[in-house]
Each structure stands twice: as C-alpha cells, then as structure tokens.
Amino acid sequence: MKVPKKNRYFHNKNDEKQDNADKSADVEVYNVKITPRILKKQKYKEVKNIGKVLRKEKKGKFPGKAPIDPKTLERYSRGEGLEGKGLTHPLHALKWQKKERKFNYAQEQAARAEILLPEDQGLIEVEEGGKTTAVSQKIIAENVDIAAATKIFELNLDFGPYRAKYSRNGRHLLLGSKKGHLAAFDWVTKKLHCEINVMESIHDISWLHVETMIAAAQKEWLYIYDNTGTELHCVKKMDKILRMEFLPYHFLLAAVNEYGFMSWLDISIGEIVGHYNNRMGRTSVMTQNPYNATICLGNSKGVVSLWSPNVRQPLAKILCHKTPLTAIAVDNRGMYMATSGVDRSMKIWDIRNLDGPLQHYKLRSAPVDLEFSQKDMLAVGLGEVVEIYNNCCSQTAEKPYLRHRMAKSISNFKFCPYEDVLGIGTSTGFSSIIVPGSGEPNFDALESNPFQTKKQRKEAEVKALLEKIPAELITLNPFDVMEVDVPSMQEQMEARKKLLHLKPKNIDITPRHKNKGKTTIARKKIIKSSTRKEFIDQAIEAKKLLDMPEKQTAPKKSFGVLDRFVPKTKSKK
Amino acid sequence: MSNVKIKVISRNPEDYLRSTKRDIHKIPRNYDPSLHPLEAPREYVRALNAVKLERVFAKPFIGNLDGHRDGVSTMAKHPSKLAVLASGAFDGEIRIWDLAIRKCSRNFVAHEGWVRAICYAPNGETFTSVGDDKTIKTWKSQVQSPEDEEPLNTLLSMSVVSGITYHRVKPIFATCGEHCQLWENTRNEPVKVFKWGVDSLHHVAFNQIENNLLASCASDRSIILYDCRESGPLRKVVMELRSNALSWNPMEAFIFTVANEDYNLYTFDVRKLNQPVNIHMDHTSAVIDVDYSPTGREFVAGSYDKTVRIFESLKGHSRDVYHTKRMQRLTCVKWSLDNKYILTGSDEMNIRMWKARASEKLGVLKPRERTALHYADALKEKFGNHPQIKRIARHRHVPKHILNAQKELRTIREKTKRKESNRRIHSKPGSVPHVPERKKHVVKEDE
Predict the structure, then answer these.
(1) Dihedrals φ, ψ of B371, to 5°?
(2) Where is composition skewed (Basic residues) in this entry (chain A) (predicted)?
(3) B-chain residues within 8 Å CB-CB of A497?
(4) CA-to-CA distance for A270 and A523, rounded, in angstroms?
(5) Taking 60 as the threshold, does the pLDDT of residue A8 lie above it?
(6) d(CA B52, CA B49)
(7) Which CATH number is A228's domain given?
(8) Per-residue pLDDT averaged across B325-333, rounded?
(9) Which residues form the domain of A41?
(10) How far is CA A560 from CA A33, A302, A555, in A?
C-alpha cells in the first residue's frame, strides 16, 4: 500500500480515504470539497429531517387534519407557486418561502371551508340504461317538492317575440317584447314591479347594477327606466342598438348598434367611455366574457372578435365558422366559448387559447341561441326545441342531458343564477323550465344575494360603486395588473443613461437643405432606415453598457508556482 | 319513467333570512373563485381606495401644550408613566405636563439661564436637570408637601454642563460639558471624568441595553463612545460636520443614530464605526434632535427647517413629514413609550403632540374595523409598487420653503454627480474612483 510520507499541501485529506475506498470495493466515491455553503445546507437538511421524523412519530398517535381532495384544492388554487429559483439572497428566499406558505394555507382553508356550504347541487338519477333525455318537465314536476315545482310555469303574452333576462342575483326577471311590452317582476313570488308598453319596438333589455334600474334599447334610443316604469334617462348618444350587455363590476353598459358602432356607457357617471365602429358589419350576436369583461361579437362572416373599450381594434379575432354566426356563449370561468353558425354546426373553443375547436357538434338545425349555466351546462335552442348538454366542453357529449319541446319559436333564453331554472323567451310569452344541476347551489351573499333586503341592497350598491373597476383595466388577461412590469429595452437604456450622467446626443431633425432630386418616398425610406440604424446603434451601445461588469473581479486565488496551470479566461477585444 | 330521482335547488327562506328584526342578517359565504371574478382588478381598485383613504385620514396633529414663556429647550419622558412629560425652557423654567388632559401640572424656575437637559431617574421618582448656571439639580417627581418643591440635591459643577443621562441600573448618571463626567447622587464630586482633548460636548446618552456604554456628541464634529467601567474613553469617530444629538436603538444594543448638522442623520454600528450603516436624508436644514420609537424600527427627527420627519431605521428616506404653519424651528423631539405619539418642542414656546402614524384611528377599534384595516394594509403592501398607488402613498404636501430647499439641494447633488462623472470620463481610468455615499461623511475613526 502506498502511503504518502509527508502531508504536503496538495494532499487533500479526502484523497487518502478515496484511495482506500477505490481498493476496498466497487463503491463509487465522490470527492466533495466541503465549503461553508454545503455545510450550511447539510445542517439545514438535518434539522429538516429531524422535524420530519418527529412529525411521523406524531402521525402514528394522532392522525391530524383530514386530508383534502386534490380536486377541491385545485379549484381554489391561485396558480402554481414559484420555487424561488432566481433568489440568491437567503433572506429573500426565506421571505418568499413564508409568502408561499401563506398562499398555500389560504388555499387549504378555503377548500376546507367547503364543508360549511349548506346546499347540494341538483341532479337527475335514472335507472341503469335509462336516459335523462327522456325526463320531461312533467316528470320533473311530479318528482320535486311543491316549492320547486312552482318554478315551472308559462306566461302567455300577446306582444310578439319576447326577450328575457334575469337579474344578477337571480331573483328578478325582465321581459321585453318586439312590440314594446316591458315588464319586470320578482319571478319567485310573481310580484310585478312594473309593466309598460313603450309604444316602440324593443330590441334588447338589460338590468343595471341593481333591480331598480332597467335599460331598454328601443327603436331609436336607449332608455333607462326605474322599477316603477318611470323613464329616468333617454340616452340619445346610443341609438339603434341591437344588443346590450351589462358589465357589473365596471358599471358599463356595452352595446352594439345597427351600423356596427360599439359603445360602453358608464352608468355610474353617465359618460360614454368607448365609442367606435367595429367595421365588422351589422351583427346582433354578442355576449360578454365574465372572466375578463371583454365583449365577444360574432359577425356574418363567421368571425368572433373580442373587444374592450380602450382599443379600437379587436383584442383577438378568430374564424369560427365559414358561415354567418347565429349565437355565441362564454362560460362563467372564461374557459370555453360555444359558437354556432347557420351551417348547423356548433363548436366549443378554449377561449384563452383560440387554436382549433375542442369539440365540433353537428346539429339538426341552426341554433337560435346558446347559453352556459353556472355549472357549465350548455343550452342550445333549435327552433322550437331547447336541448341542454352536460359536460360537453372537455369531452364529446353523445346525447343531450335534457330536451324540452315547445309549440312556439324561441327568441332567447337565460339560465337563472343560483337556481336550477332556464327561462325561455318565446314568440308568445315566457316559459320557465327546471334543469336540475344547472345552477350554483351556494351563493356568496357579499357577491350577490337572492334574499337581499332593501337595506342590504343599498349598502351593497355603495360598496360596489367604491370598487368600480376603471374601464382601462379591461384586458384579455385580467391578472395583467398583478404582473411584474418589465421595462422595455429603451426604458432600460434611458435609465442607464441617467445613471451614468451621459449627455444625450443632440439630434437635429430639420434637414439643412431640401433634397430636390429625390422623391418623397425614397427620402422617407432613407429617414426610416437611418433612424432604425441609429436605434440599433444605441441599442448595441446600451447592451454593451448593460453587459459591462459592475465590479472588478476579486483577485484570483494564488497557487504560487502552480499559477501557470490555472486556465485563463479568454478576454474579448 | 318510474325510477327517477330528481334533486333541484330548493332553498327554504327560513334558512337564509333572519328570524326576528333584532337578529343579524345571515351572510352565507362561498369562496369558490368562479363566483368572484376579476379578482386582480378589484383588488387593485380596493388598494387604490385604501391608499387614498389613508391620505384622507392623515391628520397627525393632536394638540399643543402651551404655557412656557420662552422657547422649549428640552424634554424628558417619564420611564413608567405615559402621561407625564417634563420640559425645560430657555428662561430656566421647568414644567411637568399631564398629557392625558393636556394641562401643565407643575411649574417652577429651576435654573438661571437655559435648562440644558432633563432626565428622569430609572425608577421615575426623581428627575435631574442641568442648566447654564453650572448646577445639577435633582427634583422629586411627586409633590406632597411644600418642601418637595425644593431640589432634593444640588450639585455644583466646575464647568458648564449641557447634557445629562441616567444609568439604567446603577445609581449613577453622566453629564457632559467640557468633559464627560460620571456622578453618584450621594457625592458632591464626579466619580469619573473622561477627557479626550475636546473643548465641549453637547449631548450624552447611556445605552439602555448594554447599560455601561454611553456616547456623546462633541463640538469638534466627533462622536465619542465611553464605557463607564473604564477609566478613559473608548472610541471616537469624526464626521464632516457636527452632530447635534444622539439616540440609541432601544432594541438593538449596538445601533445608534446621530442627528447631524449637514441635514442628514447617520445610523452607526458600534462595532464598525468607520462608516455609517445608513444615511437618512430628506431634511433641508440641520437636524437638531432625534429619538427612537420603543420598537426600534423607526425614529423621529426634528430639524431647523421647521419640520418633523419620521424615518424607518432601515431606510434612507423619511416615511412621513409633519409641519404646521405656526411651528418654528424644532429644538427637541420625543417618541412616546407606547409607540403611538410624538412630542415636539419648538422655538415658539409650544410643545406639540402628534400621532406616530398619521392616519391611525385613536381609541378602541371594533373587530370588523380592525380586520378591514388589516386587509387594507395587506392590499397596500401587495400593490405598493404600482406607480399610481406609490405616487399617492408617497406624496406629502410640504411648505414652499421646504419645497424650494429640496429643489435646490437636488440640483446641487446632481451638479456634483455630473461633475464627478465628467471628471471620471475625462481622466485616466481608475484615477477618479467611485466613492460610496456612506464613506463620504466620516473623516476618521480614533481608538
């Protein structure tokens, strides 16, 4: 055995051990040079492990908290956490860990709070091999309690095709007919708020932020009524409106008119915050995306476009069908969009991705209207039949969940929020049907409360007004406002310049003499190219500055005579 | 279709409505994120509202204590009673105040000429004052009989005395003047005299944690550290300009902050005096006095520019600025021991009471109020870096003379920077090195 005679400076203590190990067994030995950092890490690991062991021992005696279903947990997730990879300073890493822990705790608590929810979702259970499609409203009425059975009703009204809309808490219903009949009532108690005939055609109706205010798009202008039918405003800036949508958190009434003008009316201050022509042609296919408050517009060329009041161009455009569109619907979480064309097809899209339809359905006829419920059921209106599909977005639904046939044509329908009810506006009135499992069973009273008292409503109105989101924040990604603002190259350059106290070059923009011989186009090109070149030069300079090492590197470790074997770093000239 | 089971949502109103009119409303909650859309912009708006409300409610001035017939020269906090404050004036009068009712409870002429400093004994039963008449007088805090009005003890010093501070535990106190002297109450002569070739010292303070350590500010621009167990001074650091006052951090024994004549405050670490740990800028004139909050996280500084500024001890710029039209040049500032109030004495004979946090509500908070405030604070922190929110949170209205002075200072600072960078550009690389700001203000450190 070779034994070193003396301990020389190049003999590491570990070397000896390694030699031994090499000979003794085929075990691979890694020679790790121990640095303070590794020691620290090791220590930390040890401490951590001790904690784990202790916890495990504890687990045997006391099982601890009940485990949470990962699916439930996923529902309350605010996105994946960061691992804190780029954090170099241990203090920042620690702070980040603490923050992460808080987020996780909040998520867990929210998921655990689900046990407190009082109501369960509705459902239909049939015997094995049976179809839920065969369950008619009559059977449903026979099988539910009396109070729920009263939710199936029909109103026969004389004034032609009706449009219906529920208020945000699902308690009130608004009907507006083509022939001018406008009615608002509490549909649960059937108490009428008001009923008027405006003696003009009504194209669309909408509740405003509270159930005391109604907007009606009449033949010429937009009118706003209160719940007794008194005309409050006539907004002449918005004329010939075809469709309206109310954005409750922004207090905006979005509308599109016959000439393709989009307008957003801030109803809290009565100001129009966005008004422009969409250049998409006349269209009455419109819906809102509740996830980000953009407006989805479908036109006669089969293109769906997303709009915000701040940008005059569509935020996104997608060719959905090669034929004119008949209806669009967006689900509550802003995940799926359903579109239908006159080609009798219906497609489901991922609205955040927009490439390729997720599902493609062929229907018997072209749908009149589409509507998603709170629990992602999709109602499709086919002439005189309403079909409701369950779970049709992520997978292909073979059969409709429910089918309801009527002897009158459908004009529109809406799912009632927080109820298992679908309200259908038809050519001869209104009919309400039960769709078990379509509504959210547990409401959040601070968001919208079906059992709201007058005082609560007033208070909620004030709170909502205080939290009115400005129209500028309507973007495709609503979480934009939370993201880190990364400065552009130019901004970085400017900041750097300021830091270095460099004087900016004086650029004389006016030409000294006219270049008479050259055409304007050529000159423009020259100017363009020269400015571009200038910018590129500046960018290169700035990059150089940015790449410049901040400090001189610390003097290298000296190995005495052996310095010549240290690899030299190449220096760029 | 016989075997069909159907369940629909059917709410019993009794479960959701209050049973009697005296009952509270039922508020069922559901935290499902799909029921609460647009979370980010809503939170942003809430944060914006919270920060605006904070500025709306920022009314820090509580009241003033008037009664002195000359400018207030010094103040002293009672170590155990929050409502007691002693203040001395330029005419030699000392007043004891009851802060709860904002009334003067006792006043007497203690010295001929200024009252230079007052300090309570750690037990709070007596307090000692020093004046221009070279006397050190000890007084009783509580007056039961007429003879309690007279000083308990009068010590005559050979030279002018300008500052006094008590040891936290031992029955000794230190004064400063020509030299730093240690006294015991029972003796007529100083126990110890520390000299380091200085003509005069104007402020002295015992460390309250490492209680044998004391520091003083000298008129030759230096700060001197002493240990009361040793025979000579320990260390000295010389600054570019004179330091006016000194305050020890009550939570971190090795940290102290000095108020300097060059408009800045410097936080030093005792273990590393060759450069300050932090420089606190923002005042536009000499800083006269400084006092730490009992948490050690913040301190208050009063300046000759007629403003009071509150600094966070780890940050370089002030968190808040207080001023009034009538307040003249500050002479002394104190942070109350419950961390809620700030007391300032100024040239024009008034002592003013301020809230330490300008928008804080005084009095008892209801639980809902408290949670709402916590929520608002969390939001403000979360969105604190948004330009709009930052702008509102940072904005302070200052009098015109301060604004102009700030502008002037900024141009001066920019000028020097520009000049330096120009010089750097046009000279041999490396010959004009970058000197960090923290290294610029200390001249030397002696041992």
Answers:
(1) -65, -40
(2) 1-11
(3) none
(4) 49
(5) no
(6) 5
(7) 2.130.10.10
(8) 95
(9) 1-64
(10) 21, 78, 14
pLDDT range class, residue A65, cuts 50, 70, 90: confident
Of A167-171, A490-494, B30-34, B305-309, the one with minimum mean pLDDT is: A490-494
Q: Are strands B172-177 and B180-184 parallel, antiparallel or unpaired?
A: antiparallel
Which of B4, B13, B49 lies at the smallest CB-CB distance from A124?
B4
ipTM for the complex shown: 0.84
pTM score of the predicted model? 0.84
d(CA B277, CA B316): 10
Residue A221 falls within a domain, yes or no? yes
As a whole number, the mean pLDDT across chain A is 86
Mapping DSSP to helix (H, G, I), strand (E, B) and coil, where does residue A351 land? coil
CA angle A365, A370, A375 (to 5 degrees): 130
User: Per the CATH hierarchy, to which homologous superfamily does domain B61-355 belong?
Assistant: YVTN repeat-like/Quinoprotein amine dehydrogenase (2.130.10.10)
A54 and A142 share one domain: no
Q: Are A87 and B44 in contact (CB under 8 A)?
A: no
For an interface test with B, the pick among A68, A467, A472, A475 (most B C-beta atoms closer than 10 Å) comes out as A467
In terms of residues, how long is chain B?
447
The answer to whether A258 and A438 are in contact (CB under 8 A) is: no
Q: Are both A43 and A173 inside the same structural domain? A: no
Select the more confidently predicted residue: A34 or B388. B388
Does some domain include residue A86? no
In a domain, A120, yes or no: no
**Is A229 inside any structural domain?**
yes
Which residues from chain B sit within 8 angstroms of residue A130, using beta carbons? 1, 3-4
Chain A environment of B52 (Cβ under 8 Å):
none
Domain boundaries, chain B: 61-355
Q: SS3 for B63?
A: strand
**Are the beta carbons of A330 and A351 closer than 8 angstroms?**
yes
Q: When comparing pLDDT for A518 and A365, which is higher?
A: A365
pLDDT exceeds cutoff 60 at A121: yes
Residue after which a domain boundary falls, among A64, A97, A118: A64
Tokens linked to B364: 């008892």
Distance to chain A for B309, nearest Cα, Å: 28
Residue A56 has pLDDT above 60, yes or no: no
Question: How many domains is chain A built from?
Answer: 2
Q: Are residues B366 and B106 in contact, defined by beta-carbon separation less than 8 angstroms?
A: no
A22 — pLDDT class (breaks 50, 70, 90): very low
Tokens at B308, concatenated: 């009071």
